[in-house]
Each structure stands twice: as structure tokens, then as C-alpha cells.
Specification:
The protein is α+β, with helices and mostly antiparallel strands. The protein is built from 12 helices and 6 strands. The strands form 2 sheets. A 4-stranded antiparallel beta sheet has the order 3-4-5-6. It has a two-stranded antiparallel ribbon with strand order 1-2. The radius of gyration is 25 Å and the shape is extended.
Length: about 325
């Protein structure tokens, strides 16, 4: 069995081994209040043991609350599929004209992230998880392959890689997967027939920092890269706690405590704007009065004292164990 097949089977078995929990809130409340919706959705995925993430379509995070409300307003997932209303649901989001296959992508993300949530909170189902009827799957649809989305684009020929050019087609449909995200776009894998290409997909209108790398003339083209190449920048130093769980937890600065507190509050208020949190929190820290800032700095100093104390105790225990090992 391939690695992808094994992962797919494992993911399915995790859901099948669970039972639906009781509704975490009423359908009326989650539909009316986005904060209640996001809170219950995250808790629901945690209880079910399923992976939760916020999808990105056209460079913007998908508002799952709006998607849930629009789908349940039309009778739920299976009714929207049966009556072919995904295009109608997609029209609410006003995607840019360059966003292709929006209906398929919305349907895929709904099935992955909202279907079981809908069964519990909209249909009030209990017991073992429901399985979508066979009619809700298209025979020719790639929806049976989780993590894939359709992307339609017109690639420009790259002289260094002439084999990547397909003659006679200026625009075609390919099955691809987003492997990573950065300021200017995404790292993607695209399957063309039996061949899989890896590359970079840029967003010309992305509001990220304007660098010469982002302003490449081959915007929209897929540029081959080596997925396993080593990154020189941004690598985190390996934590000592991985090798020894009893190693004391490193101390945090006053700003770290302030950041964690503000981030938690902002995440509840603005679940779709996480990329702006760092800037917002930095501005809030700058605007604090010296007295307010001193509160968090004192917390940081106490945490540093805690770390130094625990580190000293840890080293003493380590020496003691080493001494006992030498004597034995």
C-alpha cells in the first residue's frame, strides 16, 4: 500500500472509530454568531480527532462560517450536491475571475471540514459518523482524493525546461495540491497525466512585501524546484526538550506573554485575519504605557527565575544519576 493510501485509510478510520458528540451549541447560535461557530468547530474537530485548518482560495482564507450558513440555508451538503447549487453558494464569496473550479473546491472543503459538524448541529445526528450517499460523489470527480484541488492556468514556456511545455494547448485542467505557503504565493505539486511536477505559484496581487523575487515576470507560471532542498534561513534551533522531556521549559520574555494573551483574544474575535495579528500585537505593545509594560516584564522576570531554578535542579539531578551510574 502506498504512503498516501495508508494516510487516507488511517484518516478515515479515525472518524469511523468515533461517535458523534452532543451538539456543542444550537444551529441557530452557530449560524448567528461567528465567534460561537469558530469555537465549536475547533472543539468539534478536536473531539473527533480530525485535522482542522482554514483553507485558502485565491490568496484569501475561506470563511467557513459563511460557507456553513449558505449550505445549511439550502438544506445541507447532500441537498446542495443533488440540486447542483455549489455555483450558487460560490457566488456569495465573489471570488476573482482567476479563481477557477471554485464550486469543486468549496464542495471538497465542506465535505472535509464541515460535513460531520453539519450532521451534529444541523441534523442533530447521534451515534456513528454518517457517510455521504454515493450520489453525492461524481464518478469523474477527483473528490475521492483528499487534499487535491483543480487549478486552471496558462503556463509560460521556461527555456531551461522545454519538456514542461505542452504543444497544442494554451490552457488545460490539472490536478494539483498546495504543499506550502509563503508571502508571494504557494509551493504546489501538479499532476499532468502520469507525471507530477513541483513548482511555485505566484499571486501578483498579494499584499505581501514587494521584492524582486515576488515581481517575477513569470507570474502564474510553475517553476520547478527541489522540495527536499535544505533551507538556510528560518531553521529553528533544535529544542533540548525533545531529547529529554524532563529538561525545564525555556523562559519567555514579557513580550512573549503579552503576545500570547493578545493572540488568544484576537483569534476569537477575528479568526480569518491571523496573518495580521503580529503587526496588530506589535502596535499594541508599542502603545502600552511604561506602567502597563512593566506588568508583563515582571512576569517575564519571574519566568526567568523559574527557569534558572529548574535548570539548576535539573543539572543536580543529572549529576546525581551520572554518579549513581558510575558507582554501579
Amino acid at each position: 500500500m502506498s504512503q498516501s493510501s495508508a494516510a487516507k485509510t488511517k484518516g478515515r478510520s479515525v472518524v469511523e472509530d468515533k461517535l458523534y458528540p452532543a451538539p456543542l451549541s444550537s444551529h441557530e447560535d452557530v449560524s448567528k454568531d461567528p465567534i460561537v461557530f469558530w469555537d465549536t468547530l475547533r472543539r468539534f474537530h478536536f473531539i473527533m480527532g480530525t485535522k482542522f485548518m482554514i483553507p485558502v482560495i485565491g490568496g484569501k482564507e475561506l470563511d467557513l462560517h459563511v460557507l456553513y450558513v449558505e449550505a445549511t440555508k439550502r438544506g445541507g451538503y447532500e441537498k446542495v450536491v443533488a440540486e447542483k447549487k455549489w455555483r450558487e453558494v460560490g457566488a456569495v464569496f465573489k471570488f476573482s475571475p482567476t479563481t477557477t473550479s471554485a464550486s469543486f473546491v468549496l464542495r471538497k472543503h465542506y465535505l472535509t471540514l464541515l460535513y460531520h459538524y453539519e450532521q451534529v448541529h444541523f441534523f442533530k445526528m447521534q451515534g456513528p459518523p454518517c457517510v455521504p450517499s454515493a450520489a453525492s460523489f461524481s464518478v469523474h470527480s477527483p473528490s475521492r482524493r483528499p487534499g487535491l484541488a483543480l487549478v486552471e492556468y496558462s503556463p509560460k514556456r521556461i527555456n531551461d525546461h522545454p519538456d514542461s511545455h505542452i504543444e497544442g494547448h494554451s490552457c488545460f485542467t490539472a490536478v494539483g495540491r498546495i504543499d506550502g505557503k509563503f508571502d508571494c504565493g504557494y509551493l504546489v505539486s501538479v499532476k499532468l497525466g502520469s507525471e507530477t511536477l513541483s513548482g511555485v505559484l505566484y499571486h501578483p496581487d498579494h499584499p505581501g512585501p514587494s521584492t524582486s523575487f515576488c515581481q517575477s515576470n513569470d507570474v502564474g507560471a510553475i517553476i520547478p524546484y527541489t522540495p527536499n532542498s535544505k533551507r538556510r534561513h528560518g531553521r529553528r534551533r533544535r529544542s533540548k526538550r525533545r531529547g529529554d522531556p524532563s529538561y525545564p521549559k525555556p523562559n519567555r520574555s514579557g513580550y512573549n506573554f503579552f503576545f500570547a494573551e493578545k493572540h488568544y483574544k484576537l483569534k476569537s474575535l477575528y479568526p480569518n485575519r491571523e496573518r495580521e495579528f503580529t503587526k496588530m500585537i506589535g502596535e499594541s505593545w508599542t502603545n502600552l504605557s511604561p506602567e502597563e509594560r512593566k506588568v508583563y516584564q515582571n512576569i517575564g522576570l519571574k519566568d526567568k527565575e523559574r527557569y534558572n531554578r529548574e535548570l539548576k535542579e535539573y543539572k543536580e539531578r543529572l549529576k546525581l544519576r551520572q554518579g549513581e551510574g558510575a558507582n554501579s
